[in-house]
Specification:
The chain is mainly alpha-helical. It contains 25 helices and seven strands. The protein has helices spanning about 10-25, 35-40, 40-50, 55-60, 65-80, 85-110, 115-130, 145-160, 165-180, 180-195, 200-230, 235-245, 245-250, 260-270, 280-305, 310-315, 320-340, 350-365, 375-400, 405-415, 420-440, 450-465, 480-485, 500-510, 530-540; strands at about 130, 135, 470, 485, 545-550, 560-565, 565-570.
């Protein structure tokens, strides 16, 4: 029987890791056709059926800024039209991401503590869901471009720690090809990381690290240039930052959520103080430093100084990566302390102070949230570390007092050395089942369609004219994708090229009858009258009008083409037969 470094049979060790990663991936569920997917998969849908959305403005007359993902998505849809290939791809991405995390903690904590540290890490991730400030995350419940960007950044970090610079660069470039934020921000983050490693061998390191990124940047350069260099940029940026996406670009909307980010950084630096001195830990620390400097510099330049171009780069895309680095350091340090409690003596007071400050910040953040599991978990981990040290001191005292008991004390310490694995397994046993159950319960692919909205989408894609244009409530976000029909405009599908963004905003103002200042103004559509309809028809030439049930009474002269308990679809007579 082949044993691993922690004394477990290697097959059991790998089995535990695979099962834990599978559980983590399953907790995100199996989903398709909602949220960001109704935008990101539009062009993919048209590649699988060229007769769809030919008259749609957003799909055909705005710049699609996730071009590589379009073909990836089309390939998945060709495999399965119902979306199961998309859901399985998401599952695989999270699973592979989990394996990357395991390999990272194994490199940092040491092979003998790799499984224990991984289980401790996952217990935190089952709570945080890899989410961070500014509605950012590593993984979500759906496959989207950021999923592959995040996976590339995670794999790139792993290979950086392993000194496999070319593989690191290739993974970062692949992730950046799917999502430009990851491409642009990889330069400062990993540039600072290489700077932190010193000048020895830097020429070879930098060439292998950044050559793949440069190739992808050159390929995407026209798109990057178009997104940031036009005369329309200031007005378009105001619409994007203040009206459409303040949850991403306006820190005033989420300033309190910077507290967990800061807390993970304090905990990571404090608990990982000794880890930073090992070769692998030093390289992880270099990436951590690159993340922190980039994120906080970008935050400074988006708040106190307010440089719009910096804000648009969205440095908070990497905030979940920084949180993960802190969580990895906490998990690895905890595994080491529980295994060898005497190591606590090597932590200087400043390190212990930083860790305690991190716990304090979490306490402030969660003080009004009853039953919040994260602070309880972290306090439990901290208490276990203290208890382990107390028990260790007690055993050392017993050895000094009764030297003849030394052999028994050694046996007890050997068994206590397995505590991290037990603690990690117990934490997952408590936390994972509920998260997995929620993920499966919320999986829309495991549930049938239903409701008035689903009936409307079904009628649109199966019974309505394929080449017609529909004027729809702008908060009905899935009409293009699930209804597979062209529409005038909606709130969800927003272009990022400045001139196109202004066109989108003009359409919204026209159909709502308001000078739109936020999502709440979408309700203005519900009061549309014949006069406003005539203006919209003259400008955008829709063929059908979709209203919430009851709104059809304002248009007695229009023919009802479809109606259910929630919606009415009216044929606009002036648009012709």
């Amino acid at each position: 029987m082949i044993l691993s470094e922690n004394g477990l049979p290697r097959a059991i060790e790998y089995g535990v890791v695979v099962l834990a990663a599978l559980a983590f991936a399953t907790s995100y569920g199996f989903n398709y056709g909602f949220d960001n997917q109704v935008v990101y998969f539009l062009k993919s849908l048209t590649l699988t059926d060229k007769s769809l959305l030919r008259a749609d403005w957003f799909t055909n007359h705005t710049t699609q800024y996730h071009r590589v993902f379009i073909y990836f998505g089309a390939g998945l849809l060709e495999l399965n039209k119902r979306g199961w290939a998309v859901a399985v791809a998401q599952f695989v991405a999270v699973f592979v991401g989990g394996l990357c995390m395991y390999r990272l903690v194994k490199r940092i904590a040491g092979a003998g503590l790799g499984v224990a540290a991984f289980l401790l890490l996952l217990s935190m991730l089952f709570i945080t869901r890899t989410s961070s400030v500014a509605a950012s995350y590593l993984f979500d419940t759906i496959m989207q471009p950021s999923t592959l960007g995040a996976l590339g950044s995670l794999a790139g970090t792993l290979f950086f720690v392993e000194e496999r610079w070319l593989w690191s660069g290739l993974c970062l470039a692949a992730g950046g090809a799917f999502h430009a934020n990851y491409l642009v921000l990889s330069y400062p983050i990993f540039g600072i990381a290489h700077l932190a490693l010193g000048s020895k061998g830097s020429r070879k390191r930098l060439l292998e690290q950044f050559a793949p990124l440069v190739v992808v940047t050159i390929a995407l350069f026209p798109l990057l240039l178009a997104a940031s260099h036009t005369k329309a940029s200031p007005e378009a940026q105001e619409i994007l930052f203040r009206i459409r996406s303040p949850h991403h670009y306006n820190p005033g909307h989420y300033e309190r959520n910077f507290m967990p980010v800061a807390a993970w950084q304090l905990l990571g630096v404090g608990s990982g103080w000794l880890i930073h001195r090992t070769p692998n830990g030093r390289r992880l620390g270099a990436v951590f430093a690159g993340l922190l400097i980039t994120i906080w510099t970008g935050t400074l330049l988006s708040t106190f100084v307010e440089i719009p171009k910096v804000t648009q780069i969205f440095v908070w895309r990497f905030a979940p990566n920084a949180d993960l680095m802190g969580q990895i350091l906490v998990a690895c340090a905890l595994a080491q302390v529980l295994t060898r409690p005497g190591i606590v003596r090597k932590f200087p007071p400043v390190a212990i102070g930083l860790a305690c400050a991190g716990l304090g910040v979490f306490g402030l953040y969660f003080r009004n949230k009853e039953g919040a599991p994260l602070p309880r978990l972290l306090l439990g981990f901290f208490a276990l570390a203290v208890l382990a040290r107390v028990v260790d001191l007690g055993l050392n005292w017993l050895t000094d007092l009764r030297p003849e008991q030394r052999s028994r004390v050694v046996v007890v310490k050997r068994w206590l050395g397995r505590t991290p694995l037990l603690v990690g397994a117990l934490a997952l046993y408590v936390l994972a089942p509920d998260r997995i159950s929620q993920g499966i319960h919320r999986s829309n692919l495991l549930k049938g369609e239903g409701g008035a909205q689903s009936d409307l989408y079904r009628w649109l894609r199966e019974r309505s004219p394929k080449d017609a244009v529909y004027l729809t409530p702008p908060d009905l976000e899935a009409t293009r994708f699930l209804g597979q029909r062209a529409i005038v405009v909606d709130w969800k599908a927003v272009p990022l090229i400045p001139t196109e963004l202004l066109g989108w905003y003009e359409r919204l103002c026209d159909v709502t009858g308001r000078q739109v200042s936020g999502a709440g103004d979408m309700s203005g559509y519900n009061s549309i009258d014949p006069e406003r309809l005539a203006s919209v028809v003259a400008k955008y030439r829709p063929d059908y009008l979709v209203l919430r049930r009851g709104g059809e009474r304002r248009f007695p002269d229009l023919l009802v083409a479809f109606q259910n308990s929630g919606y009415s679809v009216l044929k606009i007579a002036s648009s012709g037969p």
